[in-house]
Amino acid sequence: MLRFAVALAGALACLSLFAADPAPVFEYKLEKDLSCLPADAQEVTDYQRERCKLDFYYPTNHPGYATVVWFHGGGLTGGGKYIPSELKNKGLAVIAVNYRLSPKVKCQNSIEDAAAAVAWTFQHIAEYGGNPDRIFVSGHSAGGYLTSMVGFDKHWLKAHEVDANRIAGLAPFSGHTITHMTVRKERGISSKQPVVDEYAPLYHVRADAPPTLLLTGDREMEMLGRYEENAYFMRMLKINGHKNVTLYEFQGYGHGMTTPGFPVLLRWIQQISPDPKPEK
Questions:
Q1: H runs (alpha helix) in 19-100
Q2: Is 139 helix (H, G, I), strand (E, B) or coil?
Q3: CA geometry: angle at 123 spanning 112 and 80, to 5°?
Q4: Segment 243-264 mean pLDDT
Q5: Is 10 a residue whose pLDDT tops 50?
């Protein structure tokens, strides 16, 4: 019996050498309603002070973490910041952003606010233990549109002295790539009339843009050709020489296709920028 016990203990010890490392346990802190207004902002309105805020959810025991700046949807006319549950406790930080909305402002102001939030992230993430080289930008629907506008049209971040190419990756969920329907509405144009101008991510395709992950719902269930917009966006990026763009179409899901999208996003982040191995 003793020999068996000793042999069993030895076998278990050997097995433990080959066992996978236990999953890390992350400790998190949430800071709410931080202002992302530029320090030198002039003539700030009460509405700016109300809306230009972010919630910052970050691990306190995982230095060098990646960060996802997340823009909510709502057609640029509604919605509010939230931390997606699928991104919690994954070892990365999430910055959930509010921005001004139409019709109180023009859509260009929404893009300005999105750029200010991304700039805030670059300016401050290292203070909280994050890696400024691992900042990803993402969002759903209108948030996906903001993701692409900030990432592809470089002048929005240039206003904050940030090069958009510093973004580690762009991941719009079901975002417009043509001019946003609310921009068209402001001009009296039907949502069924496509427009491609300076307020269209398609207008700004370029070879040197950050790695891009495009996600949409089923082409037969999506809003107004949203899949086809993104498919054309991918094709034009490739034609222009972009080397790292992927499109996912989630069969059986409509416009609210975030559930299958988040695991793809998390896997893609690790492919683009793997977590540093812990020191032993």
A1: 46-51
A2: strand
A3: 45
A4: 97
A5: no
Angstrom distance (rounded) from CA 173 to CA 141: 6
Report the percent of the chain where pLDDT is more than 70: 91
- The span from the CA of 160 to the CA of 164, in Å, is 10
Give the chain's domains with CATH numbers: 29-272 (3.40.50.1820)
CA–CA gap between residue 279 and residue 197 (Å, rounded): 49
Query: What is the rounded CA–CA span in Å between residue 222 and residue 254?
Result: 5
Distance CA 167, CA 151 (A): 7
Quote the distance between the C-alpha of residue 239 and its chain's center.
24
User: How far is C-alpha 139 from the geometric centre of its chain's CA atoms?
Assistant: 5
Most distant CA atoms of the chain, gap in Å: 87
Beta strand pairing call for 212-217 and 169-173: parallel
pLDDT recorded at residue 42:
79
pLDDT at 110 over 80: yes
pTM across the whole model: 0.91
pLDDT digits (tens, 9 = 90+) for 197-251: 999 999 999 999 999 999 999 999 999 999 999 999 999 999 999 999 999 999 9
Q: What is the mean pLDDT of residues 78-104?
A: 97
Q: Please report where in the chains the tokens 């107004």 appear, as a residue.
A: 224
Q: What Cα–Cα distance (Å) separates residue 148 from each residue in 5, 93, 179?
A: 62, 20, 11
d(CA 278, CA 25): 13
- How far apart are alpha carbons 130 and 127 in whole angstroms? 7
Q: Look at the chain and count its residues.
A: 280
d(Cα 1, Cα 116) in Å, to the nearest integer? 70
Pairing of strands 53-59, 28-35: antiparallel
Query: How many whole angstroms separate alpha carbon 59 and alpha carbon 25?
Result: 10
Distance of CA 140 to the CA centre of its chain: 8
Residue showing tokens 């236990």 = 22
